[in-house]
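Hi support team,

I'm opening this ticket because the web form for multi-chain structure prediction keeps timing out on my end. I have pasted the exact lines I submitted so you can reproduce it. The total is 1035 residues across two entries, so I didn't expect it to be a heavy job. Is there a limit I'm missing, or should I split the entries? Thanks in advance, R.K.
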Amino acid sequence: MNKDFVRQAKDPFGNNEKNANWWNVLHVDPPLMISVCLLCCFGLFVLFSASGSDIDIVRRQAFTMFLGLVVMFLVAQLPPSFFRRWAPSIYFFGLGLLIVVLIIGVETNGAKSWLDLPGLPSFQPSELMKFVVPMSVAWHLGTRPIPPKFRHVFWSCMIIVLPALLVVLQNDMGTALMIVMSGVFVILLAGIQWKLVFSAIFAVIFASPVWYLFVALPHQKSRILTFFDPYRDPTGAGYNIIQSQIAIGSGGVYGKGYGNGAQSHLDFIPESNTDFIMAVLAEEFGLLGVAMLIFLYSSVLIRAGYISLRARDSFGRLLAGSVSLVFFLYIFVNMAMVSGLLPVIGLPLPLISRGGTSVVTLFVGFGLLMSVHTHSKTVVI
Amino acid sequence: MAGKWQLRDREAERAIFSGRLFVASVVCLVLFVILLINLFNLQVMQHEYFSSRADGNRLHSQYVAPSRGLIFDSAGALLADNQPIFNLTVVREQVPDLDASLALVGELIDLSIDDLTSFKTRSERNRVPFASVPLRYILSEEEKARIAVNGHRLPGFSIESQFVRHYPFDKLNAHALGYVAEINQSELDGFDEARRESYGGSNHIGKTGIERTYEELLHGQVGYEIVEKNNRGQVMRRLDRTDPVAGADLTLFLQNELQTVANQALGENRGAVVAIEPSTGGILAMISKPGFDPNLFVTGISRAEYSQLVTDEVNTPLFDRSTNPYPPASTVKPFIGLGGLALEVIDKDFTIDDPGYFRLPGVSYRWGDYTLRTAIGGGHGLTDLKKAIYQSCDTFFYDLGNRMGIEQIHDFMSLFGFGQNFALDVPYARTGVLPSRNWKSQTRGEPWYPGDTINSSIGQGYMWATPLQLATATAILANRGEVVEPRMLKAIDGISYSPSAEKSVSPLKIAQEHLSYVEDAMTMVVHRPFSDVFRDYGTAYEAIAMKDPEMEYEIAGKSGSAQVVSIAQNILQSADIDTSDLNKDHALFVAYGPARHPSIDPQIAVAVFVENGEQGSSVAGPIAKAVIDEYLLEILSIDFGLINNSLPEELSQR
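Hello R.K., no limit was hit. The queue was backed up. Here is the completed structure from your submission:
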């Protein structure tokens, strides 16, 4: 290896503290950056095997990730005060986009959620709302003293429910649920009384049978039933989860080795590039591989948590905190779903699953985190 | 807004957030731990279980069909081989819309309703997931091309090659060889576990004839292979293989050239020819006409073709005349005559004065002499056994039969295989009827009348025998009383096959002089010329010996003309069928040769049956002669050098 390269490569990482200011000027947080990049590499590595050694798919995914990094860098350049100031405008702009989608959106996989505007790559406005909603709630609660008063919580709920309903109208329950959760995290972190939290939890528990009996659509009911007993329809509704469990279980502690996952390479795992890619990982790298992934995720989460704690004001704290928790929710829901702990909801595994908009959306989140961290050190409000 | 002027305690706010974030972190940690516990449970505790499930997913054991044994005639001509055909097959699991795909296939190639219905039954029988089910057999090159070009529109459809039975001589050997066809559900149900497994990879099974008799030898042993299949059932790798063992190649006594000659000699007639080598019992020829094309059955005969075969009630091509019984008529006379001598009921000098009819004592009814029905009237005059045979005198045998009684006739005739199946490997051959008092009381519940004996003694009445039985009995006669058990199989995989040495029937103890006497009489049937003496010629002289004055050897024979017992009502009432010919007598002829030869034992015994042939001697006789000629002249010239046939030129030049 070139000596110069080694020296150059070593310097920025080796002398982190010394160059901290330099990174602040660029508005990049090195620990988060490194963790995210490691995750991306790991993800490309798994995707190469999961896609059946299709280098094109991996190349496209790498390009998307690079695009994400650029977006992250751009978002990080804007200070939190910018987002706080413009949060209401962005929110109403996002609502507008959701309404536009309802009118001229493109339908894929049963959800009318894509916007295909001329001159722009097609994208899902609902994905963006996963950050626009917490940002707006953080604006609403963060500019007021916390813990919030009841009426502020009420208005926060309105901020959450409006876009969530529009997404439900698009027939995309999974995303709607994530939007709701991203907003709810802000309310929780803002210090809402536990009394209210538990009453809400009980309300949900008591409402769920009512939902199941009177509101739930047939395919939703079937997913719930399949969750409790995948073998009631082993070749139909239960097929995905059964095959995915077989893949995970047969992986064992050490896995079958890279590229040797019979379940995925013989196409027994559906969606092996996207939602069920964890099964491929678990089959080929075993429990150790999954532990490794959880370790990488944890390093991102811990850094994100640290950033939220260190944020200078409530808005930054709430925004960074909710972004971190949304990231966690993605990870947990996907892994739990693939291993049979939760009903199947179409959610990707962050940075590992193949995807376009969802990957870029994640990087927007990282960009927000970096914005909160790097600007708060230089700009004091 | 209220919050704007309220004093904010930034440290308290930070503390609230820190507390909440701490709670959230703990919740996250707990959830990760739950996740890991679940993964530990799946990947460590239940690892074994899921590993075997994963193997069960991908590893499939499948059968490899053995190739069916070939069948050769005794000269090495291939009578049944296996040829590749191309079939259109369907894997149901891979077809998203079967009806639409079938409609598309129907536009591309010719797809009959038969194809569709049998496809349906096939796909319901013996269902294995992702098994390919044949839809259309034998695609032509053009059809193959059309399917291939449209392959992308037909997911789950593919063209597979397969080896199937092929009978190169189609109609010629149809009844003797039989045919293979698709296994049906009732056959599968009849199999035990091991047998069903051995047919795991095969679609076909022998249905009739040799194909059925030697099914187990011909079938071979099924092979296995373990393959890795993907989710769509495509084979990705072969992991292990046990090769199938091909079925045994069978060599038959049957001679294809003799079959051809017999077939030609029968001409347009309906009938049967059976030829047996007396020394071995080998069946040299076994023909039933009309035949059918056995190749039709291999890949599933169409409804139209099948109904054509079964609705032809006069020709009944599927009916094997060589192994089904008819009244043997006068062909039984040599045997009954021999019985009379052997049992000392009469002797050589015994004569009757034949008035042309026979009366039982005290009964006014006259049994006429059928052989004289159309002749001048009167009888044969003074007649001994020899004359009774070569003139086929019914009256003599009425008298002889009456003297012997039915029990003696039954016991003696049964030594020649009448009423039984002596054949070792023609299990489907019928046994006919050799009547007796017991038989009649058991099957009909009636007593035996003296008149029944009279009818039986000229091979009519209750007596029924198959051409195969007649050939067998004749061969026993030719073998000078040594029992002959007819058999088809000569060698297995080129190694000569001999059935267990113990004959199931003990040899006859008949004095050689009696046998010689009957042989003389039978030779006279063919060779005794016309003379001045009234009614003193062999009945077949005119048709055989007179036509071939330079015969190199003598034939011992006996003609027969059997009265048609009944014609089915539906045939009689059918407007389409001309019934005038169906009342005609059946013509029969039994013969062996060479007879009375100083150095050579008889080499071939033949029975010929011609349905509604009218005259045994003139219709069936020449057919027997042609068959014996074909077989004997070559043997005599090569093996015994008795005939001075100059070698063909190209052979002598070598």
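A quick check on our side: The first strand of chain B starts at residue 59 and ends at 64. Let us know if the file doesn't open in your viewer.
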